[in-house]
Amino acid sequence: MDIQPVKQKTVVYHVVTRLKELIVSGSLKPGDKFPSELKLAEMFGVGRSTIREVMKIFQYIGIVEVHNPKGTFLSDSSNISSESLEWAMILGEKDISEVIELRMVMETQGLWYLLDYHRNDTALREKTIRSLDAEIGNIKNAIATGSVELRLDADYIFHGLVIRVCENRIFQNLYQTMREFMKMEINFAQKDVDRLSEIPIHHEELLASIVDGDFNIATERFRHHIRNIDHLLESKLNSDPLT
Q1: Identical fold at 11-79 and 83-239?
Q2: DSSP string of 197-241, one letter each residue
Q3: In terms of DSSP H, where are the helices of 61-121?
Q4: How far apart are CA 113 and CA 107, in angstroms?
Q5: Model confidence over 173-224: pLDDT tens digits?
Q6: What's the number of CA atoms in the CB half-sphere (13 Å) around residue 172?
């Protein structure tokens, strides 16, 4: 590998950038073993402490896996965490609406797979419908028993079942990362107790659109549902603290 020493200013940043370039170019592929800490330090013309810091960053976000005593290996995409997205949700001012929009995109894609791409897969559709119906039952039971946690879990799982149809690992990882954020989002938007009885009704309408099998109608129903959550959340954020 043709590696040029990096300048000492923002040295960690430069090493991260150079390693990213090697990965993008295919010089390093998932499963490849990284050179030793000493060898990397010599290749980049930096101290071993800098390489150690870069590898700690990469390990934290799942880019590398450390297998002692074998060494450090480049991960595949399924092992890369979504820390940046999680921190963006925590720290960003505009990110709440943007994350909700991301959720809308993933659910729309799930509906497309279910009702269009796999429209002749009766078994998949019936299995998904049964699972969605079961979560509506869980929402009703949670409301009857006053369990907020179980209600939020069932609501989260309901929408996750639609995304799961995509069989897209990145979507699934993102949705898993969004779990606590989504539960907070749903709970905060539905803080008005008078709205609780409407929650299963809304989800039954979503399920009915899937049973009917029209992708365009189902997509519009799901988008309307998610936009309502966004509007309720925005309204409450403007009037109440997020608690």
Answers
A1: no
A2: THHHHHHHHHHHHHHHT-HHHHHHHHHHHHHHHHHHHHHHHHHS-
A3: 83-91, 95-112
A4: 10
A5: 888 878 877 777 777 766 654 678 888 999 999 999 999 999 999 999 999 9
A6: 10
Note the pLDDT tens digit of each residue in 22-55: 888 888 888 999 999 999 999 999 999 999 999 9
Distance CA 123, CA 234 (A): 39
Classify 11-79 by CATH class.
mainly alpha
Q: Which amino acid is located at 43 in the chain? A: M
Instruction: State pTM to two decimals.
Output: 0.68
Is it the case that residue 106 has pLDDT exceeding 60?
yes
Is the bond preceding residue 200 a cis peptide, omega within 30 degrees?
A: no
Report d(CA 137, CA 139) in Å as an integer: 5
Contact 73, 36 (CB under 8 A): no
| pLDDT score of 112 | 97
Phi-psi region of 3 (alpha: psi -120 to 50; beta: other; left: phi over 0): beta
Residue 69 near residue 36, CB atoms below 8 Å: no
Query: Residue 8 pLDDT more than 50?
Result: no
Fold of 83-239: Four Helix Bundle (Hemerythrin (Met), subunit A) (1.20.120)
